[in-house]
Specification:
By secondary structure, this protein is α+β, with helices and mostly antiparallel strands. It has two domains: about 110 residues, TATA-Binding Protein, CATH 3.30.310.10; about 90 residues, 2-Layer Sandwich (TATA-Binding Protein). The chain has six helices and nine strands. A nine-stranded antiparallel sheet has the order 2-3-4-1-5-9-8-7-6, with helices on one face. The protein is elongated.
C-alpha cells in the first residue's frame, strides 16, 4: 500500500501590526540592537566558472569539491567570506551592514576581474540580516510561551531559548532568560527596528522578572522543573 503523506503542521506567526502600542509603552526607551551578520547574494553575469581550474591557478581561492560544491574567497576589508558556485552565483556573509555587504560583493567581483575572468556585478540582493540585543533584565520565558503558545516554541530541556515567530514582517526571535535576543530572517534594517521595538514595548517589558532573579538558563530550567514536580504531587 502506498504511504500516506502526512500534512505538516504549519507554524503560526504573530502579526506585529496587530499589537497596539499605548501612550505608556510608547514612551518606554528601547535598548539598542546591533547587526551581527548580513547575508547577500549576487551574480557574476557569466555562463559559468571552472572553479577547479581557477583554484589550481590562484591561491586566493579555496576549492575542495569533495567537501563542498562552492569555492571560498575571503577579504580583510570589510572582513567577509564569499562562496562562489560554478553557475556564477555568489553568497557573501560576515558584513555588519547592508552597505558594507554590497561593497564587499563588488570587491569579490573585482577579484575575478583582476584574475582576467570576464565577469560583471549583477542581481545583488539581501537575503538575511541577523541582529542581537540585550534587554538588561531576566525574562519569564515560561509565561510568554503559555500566553503566546501558537507563536512560540520553548523546550527548556532541549534548547535554553524561546523561539518567537512574527509574520508581519516574517522574522524569528531567539529570546534567552538573561534578556539577550537574537533576531534573524530580516530583509532590511527597518523590519528589525519596527518588530524589535514592538516586541520589547508590548511583550518583553511585561514579562520582566523581579530584580535579583537568576539570569542563568540552567538554574531557571531547574526552577521550572521543581515547580512542575511539586504541582504534580
Amino acid at each position: 500500500m502506498p504511504k500516506r503523506k502526512r500534512n505538516k503542521k504549519k507554524k503560526e506567526h504573530l502579526d506585529f501590526s496587530t499589537l497596539k502600542t499605548t501612550k505608556e509603552t510608547q514612551n518606554i526607551e528601547v535598548p539598542p540592537y546591533r547587526l551581527e551578520n548580513v547575508v547577500s547574494t549576487f551574480s557574476l553575469g557569466c555562463n559559468g566558472l571552472n572553479l577547479k581550474k581557477i583554484a589550481l591557478k590562484y591561491r586566493c581561492i579555496e576549492f575542495n569539491p569533495a567537501m563542498f560544491a562552492a569555492a571560498t574567497l575571503r577579504i580583510k576589508n570589510p572582513r567577509t567570506t564569499a562562496l562562489a558556485f560554478a553557475s556564477g552565483n555568489m553568497v557573501c556573509t560576515g558584513s555588519k551592514s547592508t552597505l558594507e555587504s554590497r561593497y564587499a560583493a563588488r570587491k569579490y567581483c573585482r577579484v575575478f576581474q583582476h584574475l582576467g575572468i570576464p565577469v560583471m556585478f549583477q542581481n545583488f540582493k539581501i537575503q538575511n540580516i541577523v541582529a542581537s540585543a540585550n534587554t538588561g533584565f531576566p525574562i519569564k520565558l515560561k509565561e510568554i510561551s503559555e500566553h503566546y503558545g501558537p507563536y512560540t516554541n520553548y523546550e527548556s530541556d532541549l534548547f535554553p531559548g524561546l523561539i518567537f515567530r512574527s509574520v508581519s514582517p516574517k522574522l524569528v526571535f531567539l529570546i534567552f532568560r538573561s534578556g539577550k535576543c537574537v533576531i534573524t530572517g530580516a530583509k532590511n534594517v527597518e523590519q528589525i527596528k519596527m518588530t524589535y521595538e514592538s516586541l520589547y514595548r508590548n511583550i518583553l517589558i511585561k514579562y520582566k522578572d523581579v530584580d535579583g532573579s537568576t539570569t542563568s538558563s540552567s538554574i531557571y530550567r531547574n526552577e521550572l522543573r521543581n515547580k512542575r514536580e511539586i504541582s504534580d504531587l
